[in-house]
Every structure is written in structure tokens, then in C-alpha cells.
Amino acid sequence: MIECKNLKKIYRNGDIETAALGGVTFKIEKGEFVAIVGPSGSGKSTLMHILGALDTPTSGEYLLDCKNVSQMSGDELSDFRKERIGFVFQSFNLLPRTTVLRNVMLPLLFSGISQKEREKRARESLKYAGLEEEKLYGNFSNQLSGGQIQRVAIARALINDPAIILADEPTGNLDTKTSRVVMKAFQELNRDGHTIIIITHEKEIAEYAGRVISIRDGLIENDEIKK
Amino acid sequence: MIRDLLKEVLQSISANKVRSGLTILGIVIGIASVIALVGIGQGAKNSVAKSIESIGSNLIIVMPGAQRVGGISQGAGSSQTLSEEDAEAIKAQISGVAAVTPAVTGRYQLTAKGNNANTEVSGTVQDYITTRNIKMNIGSFFSDQQQKSSAKVAVLGPDTRDELFGENVNPVGQTVRVNKIDFQVIGVTEAKGGSGFGSEDDIVYVPLATAQHFLAGNNYISNISITAADQNSMTSVQEQISSLLLARHKISDPDQADFRIMNQNDIISTATSVTGTFTMLLSAIAGISLVVGGIGIMNMMLTTVTERTKEIGLRKAVGIRKIYINLQFLAEATALTFFGGFIGILLGWISSLVLSSFLSITPEISVSSIFLAFSVSTGIGIVFGFYPARKAAAMNPIEALRYE
């Protein structure tokens, strides 16, 4: 389902060229739970940006469901992200002074879907992500607890029923206990058949995944499938 | 789509009420001053036109041309070239003329009951009240008989009466001394309004023959007022008068004419074009404040875009297209200026009403100026919101998301 062939990303700063990715090749099947680990500066963030269609590789191919993402234009990438990718960002990035419901509906803006349908989908998505209390839906996002914020972020990622859920350091700003709850939530999503890719530098977090791809200096160092 | 856009705009404007309010203040003040100034200017223009129309209707005035002494012009009306015979010839020979009234004017020292005044004295004929649209307040105007017999009678303008006899006093039967000659007051005209140049309230009317014999001492006249039968015949009457007087004065080249003919429409258009130019100038100055207001909008939008970098990154990451990011910020700027324009129009309207109550001018705020104000304020939003919106849309989502 995901196929990366010899992905390279080279940043150019004046005359100095830095290879963030030096040729990465791997496949991820539908329903897998993958952790991409590596120290900072290893190129894992660059890889995540390419997998999330936020960026395109300098060379190589990235295919998602047989669609070549590497050659897409800006608007095509936008539409692709909207339809196929659910992001869960580090620190979750909810809109402040905006209600829970509106936060979850954000990816549906300018989509032509009716307001009623949007709200219905947002409610379903929130319930699925484990935020049951409807009375919270009208609250501003800055009035929620850390665990609740993370569930809203997951609900937002799920609203378009994406092909993959991409989480960038989802536990980066959380204490150990909340981290455990978050990771359990991802495991549940995976059990329901969602493909999940988590980027992290913490080995303990990677333990929750079924497969760990270690990256170092822009290259795959180790690709290990557990159990 | 549009609903989404409006919602987003409303959300972000209301999230920063104080800042949004302060930012649109520039637009509010700019639009308000343009609306108020144009309204008052238009009102002034109307009142000037109205006061000129009050002189009389379908009026044509013939005045002597400028006297030249050694090639130096002494100013219009300085030469003594018009005679009573000219006036009679116009009356007798030109068709489409309703009334012809010659007048001789001069400034004299007046005394009455120990009070002094220096006032214009106009010697004229009875028809003058028709051509100049004069109404009597007290008493009557002098008759043809009194005119022909050089009777020493005088009709006072209301301001002159106030000055010589006191306000609202009936001076009929009293004596006013002009140039050491006693005149009996027989009437007071109704106030016409207007002041300074062309005021017909500070004046004394005496019979033409009397003025020529006792005051001027010659038979020349200062102007001839002609009332055309109707609006349409004015041009033809004016042309006929011109050729008649040229023939009578034995002048072949019209450029050398020793008289000037003005019609009321010319006077109105000259006077209103002056107020019009003035209004334009003031509005242009007010327009500058609009540009300053627009820069304020741009400044605020740039701040907003920077402040919301992370949010813009998020929007882009979840797949909202560039064009919608652009539209959202453009719509935000435009909504601010549109709203500012709306308040500005109201404020301008109110302030022009308040100002005009001091100026005794009825302001005229036309639909077209309101429409223009709306389009200008909206246009400012588009122009000054363009760059910030483009900046927001061009952001790289990865960098925007990392922004702290």
C-alpha cells in the first residue's frame, strides 16, 4: 500500500548540500502499525513530511495506493492530504478559542459537504476517538485536559477516513501516564484496521508498534517486525 | 464555501475585537470625512445656486465693458458706455424679452435719525421688482410715475433699514439722507438671504431718473437686467442683444465690445464650480486619510498572519488549498474595511448634519456617494489585504507548523 523507492531529500543552502535522506526504500502494508525511530537529525522528520505529502522528495518515488505522490503539484498535494492522510501533531495543534466540534471539522472546510453532515461526522469521529461527553463539544479547546485534547486531535485526523494516520511525536509533550493512554488509543485504532505510522525518538513508545524502522543519518539502519 | 468563508472571517475578527476596532478606525474616519465633506460641499453648491436663482429667473445682465486707459484694463463695469437708450432699444427691438430694467448704482453715505451707513444705492425702474424677483415687506415700490418725475423716494433693503432705523421698525414716511439730499422712505423689501457679494438686502432703491439727476449727475447706466420670456429663448435673446448693442455702439469686432453680457446660468455654473473645486480639494485630503487607514489594515493583517502562522500551517497540513487560505485573509481585510465604511457613512452623515446646523447649509448625501464610499472602502480592503493574504497562502506548511 505504501511503497518508497530510493527516496532522497537533499537540502541546499548556498553551496552546501545536506542529504536529509540518502536513499530510503521500504513498503508498508495496510493495517500495519509502524514506528519510525531515530535520533534528532536522523532524517525521520523529513521522511514523515514526505509520507504525509507535505513535501516532495528530491528523487525517488513514493506511492500510496499506487498513486505517485512524488510528482504532485501544490493543490494536488493539498487534496491528497485532505483525503488520504490523518495527521496527529506533536502538541496536537488545536485551534485556540475554537470549539471542539469546529476543530474536528477543520479538514472539511471549503469541501462542499453540508454543515449538518459535517457535524454528524465530527460527532461520530469524536465518539470513536473516545470523547463521549457531548457537553464538551461546545467547549473551547483550551479548556480541555491533555488527554481530551489528544482525543480531539485523533478525531480530527479520522474525520476524512484517511488511508494512513501519521503521528509526529504524539507523546512528545506528555507525561508517562498520559503517553501510555495515548499509545493504547493508537493500538485500538490499529486493531480496528487503521494503518498507523508514528514518528518518535523514544524507544519505549516504539514498543507499542508492530514494526520498528530505525533511521540514522538519512538511511534505514534496522527494520524489525515483532512477533 | 461562502458560508465557510464568512464564518471563518467572523470568528477571527471577533477573536480580536479591540484590535479590529482600532484598525478600522482609520477607515471609519476617512470615509466619514469624505462623506461629510462631500455632503456639505454639495449642500453649499446648492445653496449658492439657489441664492443666485433668487436674484430672478431667466435673467440676462448687460454691463459696461472694462475701460482701458493707455492699454490698462480698469476692470469690468468701469467704463460708461451703456445708456438708457440702449435699454429702450433692447425692449423695443428684441423678441422674447419679458422685461428690461436699466439701473445705475453707486455707493453713498446715508444718514437717518443720526445713524450712518455706507450702502449701495440702485437707481432703477418699477419693473426691477419683476426682473430681480423682489418682494415687498412693508409699503410699496415706487411707481412709473414717480420714476419719470424724479421723485425723491427710496425703498430700503431690510439690512439697511435695520442699520438706519433699527430692527423691525416701520420706516415708511421717514426721511433718509443720501448724498445730502433727502429721500422719503416708501417701502422695505423682503429679506432674500445671502450675504456679502451680491446681497440684495443691504441696498437702497431709488427711481432711475432721480439717481441720474441728483446722485450720478449723468445719463449713463451701470447695468441692464433683462428677463427672457422663457428658459429656451435665453441664448437667442443674448445673441440678439449682443448684435444690437454692437450695431448701436458702432463696433464691428465682437472682441472689442465695450459691454459684457452675462446670463444667470453662467453665473451659477461659475459660482458652483468654485465650491465644487473646493469640495474636491477637501475630499482629496480626506482621501489621504483613507490611504493611511488602508496601510493600518495592511499592518494589522501582516501581524495577524504572523501571529497565526502555526494555525495557517495546520490548515494547510489538513489539506486546505492555498486559494482558500488566500481568500480567507483577503475576506478578513475586506470585511474589516467594509464594516469600517459602513460605520464611516453613518458617522459622516451624522457629523454633516451636526456641522450643517452651524453653517446653515442643508447637506446633501447622495446615493451615489454612499455607493462610492462602500466601493472605495471595500477596494481598500482588497488592495491592502492582498499582500498579507498572499503571504499567508505562500507559507510552507512544514515551517509554519514549527513556528513558535
Structure, described:
- The complex is a heterodimer of chains A (227) and B (404).
- Chain A has 227 residues and is of the alpha/beta class.
- Chain A has helices spanning 44-51, 74-84, 100-105, 115-128, 146-158, 176-191, 203-206; strands at residues 2-13, 16-28, 33-37, 59-64, 67-68, 85-88, 164-168, 195-200, 211-216, 219-225.
- In chain A, the strands form 2 sheets. Chain A has a 6-stranded mixed sheet, with helices on both faces. A 4-stranded antiparallel sheet of chain A has the order 2-1-4-5, covered by helices on one side.
- In chain A, α4 packs across α5.
- Chain B is an alpha+beta fold and 404 residues long.
- In chain B, β4 (97-112) and β5 form a beta hairpin.
- In chain B, α1 (2-15) packs across α11 (322-359), α2 (17-53) packs antiparallel against α9 and α9 (264-307) packs parallel to α12.
- The mean pLDDT of chain B is 86.
- Classes of the chains: A alpha/beta (227), B alpha+beta (404).
- Chain A binds chain B through residues 49, 52, 54-55, 74-75, 78-83, 85, 87, 89, 93, 95, 97-98, 106-107, 109-110, 112, 115, 156, 160, and chain B through 1, 3-5, 8, 11, 15, 310-311, 314-324, 397-398, 401.
What is the N-to-C order of secondary-structure elements of chain B (H for helix, E for strand)? Answer: HHEEEHEEHEHEHEEEHEHEHHHHH
Please, how many domains of chain A? 1
Strand order of the largest sheet of chain B: 4-5-10-7-9-8
Model regions low in confidence, pLDDT < 50 over at least 5 residues of chain A: none
* Top CATH class of chain A: Alpha Beta
Q: What is the 3D shape of chain A?
A: globular
Biggest interface goes to: A-B, 27 and 23 residues
Domain tally of chain B: 2
Radius of gyration of chain A: 18 Å
* CATH architectural type of chain A: 3-Layer(aba) Sandwich
* Residue share in helix of chain A: 25-40%
Tell me the structural class of chain B: alpha+beta
Number of helices of chain B: 13
User: What's the helix-strand series of chain A?
Assistant: EEEHEEHEHHHEHEHEE
Percentage beta strand of chain A: 25-35%
Average pLDDT number of chain A: 89
Strand proportion of chain B: 15-25%
| SS content category of chain A | alpha/beta
